Amino acid sequence: MAQPLSLPSVPAPSWLWGHHGEFVADPLGFVERYSRLGDVVPTRFGPLGFWLVHDPQLIGEILTTKGSSFGKDAGLRRIRVILGDGLLTSEGRQHERNSRMMQPAFRAKAVESYAAAMVETTEEVADGWAEGGEIELASELSRLALRIVARALFGADVRDAAAAVESAMTEALPLLDDRMNAVLPLPLWIPTAANRRFARARQVLDGVVYRMIEERRRAPAGTDLLSHLLAAREEGKGLTDQELRDEVMTLFLAGHETTANAMAFTLWLLAKNPDARAKVQAEVGSVLGQRRAVAEDAHRLAWTAAAVHEAMRLYPPAWFLGRQATENVELGGGRLRVPKHTVMAMSPLIVQRDPRWWDEPMAFRPERFLPGAPRPAAFTYFPFGGGKRACIGRSFALLEATLVVATLVQRVDLEMDTTREIEVKPHLTLRPAAIPAIVHRRQAAQLEATTTAFDDAVSGAHLASACPMAEKPPRAPGAIPA
Ligand code: HEM
Questions:
Q1: Is 72 strand, coil or helix?
Q2: Tens digits of per-residue pLDDT, 219-239?
């Protein structure tokens, strides 16, 4: 019989709310503090067990081999008020069917057709920045990512729809954050000012999305994502308008802020680490020179892609994954008994900075993700989750982040005050607080100078071999040895 895992005792919580108040007051601090107590830390939110899990093997089991004993947690279910039953929030057979129908549109080859929209939109945004002017990088990138996902979903010719979605999303997101974190969110029918603003924003979003669905149903099939979703069939049946609305809304939400944050943290960390920045600048000069990036360049921009991965290791945009046990379940070969209804809270942020798995974990070292580097052990790096509920947009996000960062590095130098530490905001996603940056346009001569300095041996090696993260997310590890 396997020896049971001994769980640490935790400071006594409020008898009514448990540790929830402490979590809401400072989510990141809460997870960091309690994670020091052990690999499985049994806190409590009201009557519910809320266990923090930092053991990669247990995380692997929860997300993969034992995944069918868990559903999404109640916190995530709260965003159903806007997402409905899209891929992120739905469960069971509906999730499996819609996931199967949507997968082909998100394969690495399929998403390459959005590369042009990604690069052109980035150029438009960067060209709008005045030389010597100050921008707030995090929100600029958030708008950019929203525009990119809107163009990918609806096509390039619907800028008015994209603009309407942009402003309604900007209105709805902070209100959604509040709902996620509230101890008891007020029902939407109570006419508070926040609820009314939220209802208005949702109405605008619904209006745009239903209009686009109707227009696309009438028009000949295009190459945008919505056309792919409209054409998807299983047993002869397609997605209903309601399902399409929920999936489109989900892709907007899941697909923009996460990627924007990954890009913002990457650019910030490159500003802070001049050696890594010089490598990326030189690579961009050598691979792209002055020309516009295309999809195939993403495979050649090994340093740039590695910088994105390393930024997501230190600052994973989806910093917190929750699963709730739908039955009593045993993990770790019987060493851990999880009662039904317990929430298992897993944070890539904690695991990906754990010195047991990462050498000098707080150092920004893109080399860890260069081709030829050892692949991280299973579930010591999982910014896109894992198992059946892993991120469907992974290839889209990696292509986008690599091409956007490369295009920005090609066109501008962003001067930031790197003497201070970056402030992070753990909302729905892990977001950087404001990042003021001064824009300096790069001249052709600067690009050439950095290119000459680029070590051909290094770049050649990258072109020849695959990135260690080019494969699928990690598979389940074996059970914990007793
Ligand atoms: C760097 C960018 C991104 C990160 C870090 C990220 C991260 C994640 C993670 C961790 C999950 C799993 C959540 C869980 O297990 O509870 C997820 C799910 C999902 N993501 Fe992403 N994501 C990113 C970009 C995108 C993009 C660009 C799209 C779409 C265009 C997208 C669409 C989705 C969807 C639909 C799901 C739900 C999948 C399912 O449950 O079947 N994501 N994402």
A1: strand
A2: 777 788 998 999 999 999 999
Query: Which residues approach ligand 1 with their CB closer than 6 A?
Result: 87-88, 99, 149, 250-251, 254-255, 258-259, 262, 317-318, 321, 383-385, 389, 391-393, 396-397
Q: Which of 391, 396, 399, 427 most suits a substitution to test ligand 1, by most atoms within 8 Å of the C-beta?
A: 391
* 258, 351, 369, 404, best to mutate for ligand 1 pocket (most atoms within 8 Å of CB): 258
Q: Are 385 and 319 in contact (CB under 8 A)?
A: no
Listed in sequence order, the residues at least 6 apart from 149 whose beta carbon sits closer than 8 Å to its beta carbon are: 251, 252, 255, 256, 259
Instruction: Report whether pLDDT(161) > 90.
Output: no
Instruction: Give the distance (Å) from ligand 1 centre to CA of residue 251.
Output: 9
Task: Specify the pTM.
Answer: 0.91
pLDDT tens for residues 427-442? 788 999 999 999 999 8
CB atoms within 10 A of CB 270: 28
Q: Are 383 and 474 in contact (CB under 8 A)?
A: no
